[in-house]
Amino acid sequence: MNLDWSVVWQHREQLLAATGTTVMLTIATMAIAVPCGMLVAALRLYGWAPVRAAATAYVELFRNLPLILVVFWAFYVLPIWTGLGLSPLATGLAALSLNVTAYNAETFRAGLNSIRRGQVEAAMALGMSRAQALRRVIIPQALRRVLPVLASTWVSLFKDTSLVSVIAVTELAYVAMQVRAQTFRVLEMLTAMAAIYWLLGYPQAKLADWIQRRYAVSE
Amino acid sequence: MMSTTAERAKGAGAKIIRYRGVIKRFGTFTALNGVDLDVHAGEVVCLIGPSGSGKSTLLRCTNGLETIDGGDIEFEGALLPKDDRALRSVRTRMGMVFQSFELFPHLTAQQNVAEGPRTVQKVGRVEADLRASAMLAKVGLADKAPNFPSALSGGQQQRVAIARALAMEPDVMLFDEPTSALDPETIGEVLNVMKALAEEGMTMVVVTHEMTFARRVGDWVAVFDAGRIVEQGPPPQIFEAPATERTRDFLSHLGWSG
């Protein structure tokens, strides 16, 4: 087989910019999905019954739909609902956030539930309100426990951002596929794409492991 | 139950806690079935009796961790409030120590003790830290201030938990089987801290299986069985001349010989 790797170098600027978009999309999605996930988890656990039901419905809907379907749905339905002409990037970000928020909500809920009842009682016996007990005692412990799960969600998300290529977001997968289509250098471009995802993803996974060790709380 | 004020050594002190006909049910199970008991200022009242007899439930009702289904609990002359904010204010005046310590594992010993004053009493960081240091010194753990609970023995964790409760400067201390989860060799260090506290005049309600502690440190002992107090009185009466068959049974099962 005749391989020509120069094609990767020739398109380095496009690939670099696309990689930047991928990283930015990951960071932005998590920046939205972590606080929103916490909020949804809190609503599910402590909300007024109808709010609790709505939060549960949201989680169960988005957790059980294929992400690519949500991406298409956001692309076609969001503009009609909101009346806004959202850019592909904003649409992709919305779809990813909807999906990851649902996952994070479950992660946080499991984390909050894992803190034993005695901890809340100890906080309340000191005179803390439920909100104070949550903020000072429960959430800090729950966060440390869910950190490894959040980190692995992060690593999955980094790879899943490639799905928004279907609505022409110019992230890494989309740009690599475009170059492939223009140059017919299929193997080279797929390999380059794999290398970039792996080189960026592997250190993130290692960093996640380190964070987990650093902040682990033993009882 | 039939004891005169004269027998009650510290009976002259104001009644800090009064239980009147206290009833508590969990579903169909009646955990407390009409409990009457007084706790006077400066007294150490020990609640003894078989497991499941209601001792811990009464303690947990005292600071509102459990709500009661009948009767009254008075604290410092007022009924235990139902309103959440008022109840929280009452809790700041009652320290509680749990069987399983329940230290906050993400905080150091020092931070555990400073947490109540900081978060609940809104005491400044410097003053809360001074208070925490003083309380840790009081329980003999000044050198463990920077340690996380996981690096402490059970006895040390329980002493930190006592310091955490004391840091709120409570009027009463509630102890829920404070030594039941401890290794035998560390029970003594916790009991010594409690004894020192009693000698300072702290009012204490202690659920315990340590009969020697109840006998030597207690001023008043209440024997529980099946959600009722079957007998109460000063330790010599309970341990040397128990009036009821039930108390004799319970003590003989523990191998108590006086």
Question: Describe it for me?
Answer:
The complex is a heterodimer of chains A (219) and B (258). Chain A has 219 residues and is mainly alpha-helical. Chain A has helices spanning 6-10, 12-46, 49-63, 67-82, 88-114, 117-125, 130-160, 172-183, 186-215. Chain A is flat. Chain B has helices at residues 55-62, 84-91, 109-119, 125-138, 154-166, 184-199, 211-216, 235-240, 245-253; strands at 15-26, 29-40, 44-48, 70-75, 78-79, 94-97, 172-176, 203-207, 220-225, 228-233. The chains are: A mainly alpha (219), B alpha/beta (258). The A-B interface holds A 118-119, 121-129, 132, 136-137, 140-141, 144, 217-219 and B 63, 65, 84, 88-89, 91-92, 94-96, 98, 100, 102-106, 115-116, 119-121, 148-150, 164-165, 168.
Describe the largest sheet of chain B: 6 strands, mixed
Helix content of chain B: 25-40%
Q: What is the chain-wise order of helices and strands of chain B?
A: EEEHEEHEHHHEHEHEEHH
Low-confidence stretches of chain B: 1-6
Q: Which range does the strand content of chain B fall in? A: 15-25%
Mean pLDDT of chain B: 93
| Multimer state | heterodimer
Rg of chain A, Å, rounded = 21 Å
The helix/strand class of chain A is: mainly alpha
Shape of chain B: globular
Number of strands of chain B: 10
Number of helices of chain A: 9
Biggest β-sheet description of chain A = none
Distance between the termini of chain B: 21 Å
Strand content of chain A: under 5%
Largest interface: A-B, 20 and 28 residues
Shape of chain A: flat
Average predicted confidence as pLDDT of chain A: 91
Strand order of the largest sheet of chain B: 6-7-8-3-9-10
Q: Radius of gyration of chain B, rounded?
A: 18 Å
Overview features:
heterodimer, A: about 220 residues, B: about 260 residues, four-stranded antiparallel beta sheet, globular
Give a short summary of the structure:
The complex is a heterodimer of chains A (219) and B (258). Chain A has 219 residues and is mainly alpha-helical.
Write the layout of secondary structure elements.
The complex is a heterodimer of chains A (219) and B (258).
Chain A: H1 6-10, H2 12-46, H3 49-63, H4 67-82, H5 88-114, H6 117-125, H7 130-160, H8 172-183, H9 186-215
Chain B: E1 15-26, E2 29-40, E3 44-48, H1 55-62, E4 70-75, E5 78-79, H2 84-91, E6 94-97, H3 109-119, H4 125-138, H5 154-166, E7 172-176, H6 184-199, E8 203-207, H7 211-216, E9 220-225, E10 228-233, H8 235-240, H9 245-253
Parallel strand pairs in B: 3-8, 3-9, 6-7, 7-8
Antiparallel strand pairs in B: 1-2, 1-4, 4-5, 9-10
